[in-house]
Amino acid sequence: MNIREFSKQVGLSSHTLRYYEKIGLLKNIQRSVSGHRVYTNKDKSWIEFVKRLKDTGMPLDEILVYASLRENGTETLKERQQLLEQHREELIRHIEMQQKHLSALDDKIMLYKQGKVA
User: Which of 33, 34, 29, 31 is nearest to 47 (CA)?
Assistant: First the structure.
């Protein structure tokens, strides 16, 4: 699929996709005879995973480390696992903090509903 179709399917702008290619996050993108980018389902799966990592708060620098490890093949499986486990722990801490914030907001809203706060 071309960049326009791919952009729509993955929910990223063509500018972002070109940037990801420039920094090495998207590698080995095929080209048509005319030189246009041609994306595959494998590229789509990869970008969806990258988006998930970003959505869960992983910094782009760490995603690039993961991508580099991934490119080096199965000998880096343990390192990739450790990177994801570390991110998972950070995500759990973030969710716990957000739960505390949500609880505090709920308490404040309840006070307003009960007319106890001006």
Answer: 29
Q: What pLDDT, in 10s, does the model give residues 32-86?
A: 999 999 999 999 999 999 999 999 999 999 999 999 999 999 999 999 999 999 9
Q: Could you tell me the pTM of the whole model?
A: 0.85
Nearest-Å Rg of the Cα atoms of the chain is 20
End-to-end CA distance of the chain: 58
Which distant-in-sequence residues (6+ apart) come within 8 Å of 31 by Cβ? 37, 38
Judge residue 17's burial from the number of C-beta atoms within 10 Å of its C-beta, 0-12 exposed, 13-18 middle, 19 or more buried. Answer: buried
**Which residue segments constitute the domains of the chain, with CATH numbers given?**
1-55 (1.10.1660.10)
Rounded CA gap, 29 and 39, in Å?
Answer: 6
Please give the Cα distance from 80 to 78 (Å, whole number).
Answer: 5
